[in-house]
């Protein structure tokens, strides 16, 4: 995840909140860091070309399923040409 920049370095305010809840994220992650993954959706063609990317820091904001399906349909159409 870190190699693709899809992680979120937690600010001190969130670290404090997690600590009060007994969550030791650095131990859980096994890397000593207060880092969470970002929600990400990729559509990648068989040729390795990235056809669609959606990355959003707000975990409540996800890719629209219709947008993802449209990209998949485009890739399928490209294969049949």
Run of helices and strands: EHHEEEH
Low-confidence stretches: none
User: What's the average pLDDT?
Assistant: 88
| Strand-pairing-aware structural class | alpha+beta
Radius of gyration: 17 Å
Strand content: 15-25%
Oligomer: single chain
The major beta sheet can be summarized as: 2 strands, antiparallel
Number of domains: 2
Instruction: Please give the number of β-strands.
Output: 4
Distance between the termini: 34 Å
Widest sheet: strand ordering:
1-2
User: How many separate helices?
Assistant: 3
Fraction of residues in H or I helices: 25-40%
Overall spatial form = elongated
Question: How would you describe this protein?
Answer:
This protein is an alpha+beta fold and about 80 residues long. The chain has helices at about 10-20, 25-30, 65-80; strands spanning about 5-10, 35, 40-45, 50-55. The strands form 2 sheets. Strands 1-2 form a two-stranded antiparallel ribbon. A hairpin with a 5-residue loop joins strand 3 (about 40-45) and strand 4. It is elongated. The mean pLDDT is about 90.
